[in-house]
Specification:
This protein is mainly alpha-helical. It has a domain of about 140 residues: Cytochrome c oxidase, subunit III, four-helix bundle (Four Helix Bundle (Hemerythrin (Met), subunit A)), CATH 1.20.120.80. About 75% of the residues lie in helices and about 0% in strands. The longest helix is centred in the middle third of the chain and has 31 residues. The protein is elongated, with a radius of gyration of 19 Å.
Length: about 200
Amino acid sequence: MNRHIDQALNQPPPSKPAKKGKIHPQKFAMWIAIGSIIMMFGGLTSGYIVRKSQGNWELLNLPSAFYTSTVVILLSSLTLSLALRYFKQRKMALHNAMVSLTLVLGIAFAVLQYIGFKELLGSMQWANNVSFQYLIVIVLVHALHILGGVVALLFLFLRSFNPKLKVYSTTGHELVSTYWHFVDILWIYLFVFFLLNQ
């Protein structure tokens, strides 16, 4: 994904207005990937519910870090949206400030998620526990997407503060924003799912 963002950020300003209704190929690939991830998590959570209905299942007890991390990632989505708006307006000082704040919030979210899932998994009996096995798969897949999001934010941060680069295209920024907003929505979905399965 970072290679696509790198190419997009280095694109020169378009000489002609883009045709209406035509989606950028890198954005199209992003949406295909997001669709695949949605189907995967839909399958995982559906399997969780079906298996839970069969009994012999340990209920979840959500740690407080999950509530805090939800607020943090919502704020990060807001700051990233502001960063993109300032980028389009060429208010680069404000843009860089919002990108920096988004990266800090993104890292804070990742840390809080680690603390929360460590506490959650530590409170469960893992031996011969099917609910634990389902949960650990969801956690690992979710962790990979968080890691990918933080790496994308770091990449955007480094590009924003590189004085040798003159970036005009919004495509790379929009790719990062789309993916991070998706991580936000994905966590809200999992958070509500965990709340309903306490």
